[in-house]
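User: For a benchmark we're assembling, each entry needs the component sequences followed by a predicted structure for the full assembly. Here are entry 17's components. Please fill in the structure.
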Amino acid sequence: MLHDPNHLYIFDTTLRDGEQVPGCQLTTVEKIEIAKDLEKLGVDIIEAGFPVSSPGDFQSVVELSKAVNDVIICALTRANENDIDVAADALKYAKRPRIHTGIGASDMHIQYKFNSTREAILERAVAAVKHAKKYVEDVEFYAEDAGRADLEFLAKMIEAVIAAGATVVNIPDTNGYCLPDQYGAKIKFLKEHVKNIDQAIISAHCHNDLGLATANSIAGVQNGARQIECTINGIGERAGNTSLEEVAMIMKVHQQSLKVGTNINSKLFTHISRKVSEMMNMPVQPNKAIVGRNAFAHSSGIHQDGFLKHRENYEIIKPEDVGLAEADIILTARSGRHALKHHLERLGFSLDKEQLADAYKRFLDLADQKKQITDEDLINLVKVEA
Ligand code: KIV
Ligand code: ZN
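Assistant: Structure for entry 17:
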């Protein structure tokens, strides 16, 4: 498969790895709504589910395949014929189907999950890819727990599955174990030692157990990965997956050094983040990068003053670029006169220096008693002055 080396494919797995989280299950109708939003957002691939896992998941993959036109629809399987047959059946209406098959690659998984040997696992991996190729041209292979796998064996496995027809090779850090330089070095090793690596796209699939999912995915890209598997709000098993919105904004902010781009329309982030959070019943932490409630809220006096003088002093992303109307200047006891003046002017009050100094004293008294000051509080404060 020919691909543009400067394009980073965004593989969204909100509806598969994300939806596996207890309490996050969605109906097929809800999944279709999110898939249509993901298509508008500009993702390249939607992982729609794991069809053999339940009749509901099977049906969702069928319906998503019908509902989505331009994006690749992907279905997950284990490395066995039945899973692959069922996935192929679920994908029958997809305009651009992909089967995502794979098996454990670390000795830990080989021994304690499959009670098998490296040789037998390698055979199963190759057989699974060959079987999937009977149905679809686009076959992605995942080497589960690649983060802890022996490098030489991983390289052998990846070379064998590409020779069998894999178009994308996914190197999951399933347990969120790697450090960014370790994960990057793994991708570099594969780039340099797998003879046929140029016939496939390398994909980074990182979990967030140590809070490193996004950093590891970026390290993957810096070393040759051209697909990132991620979810809206970073939801996913345990501590979650790589967050889609973080990856896309990193690509935008650091385009000059990373030299790859995505098709993502970041202006839709706030909308889709809130929708996924509500539908999946998963609140977003307030300090979450890009989509958290406080991601564009300035609250300390020093920051507020600097921001009001020149917003780039404290802003590397414009709130409008992620679909927010404006940054927030939160009034608390840590705010300074400049922030108070800004809010009073916004409410139509223009105070001279002395009036502002008086109002600021009353403001501080009030702010010491309240966590946050509202517009109504400010109006009362100025009315006292009058
Ligand atoms: O984390 C993982 O290894 C996965 C695979 C099934 C791709 O989700
Ligand atoms: Zn995963």
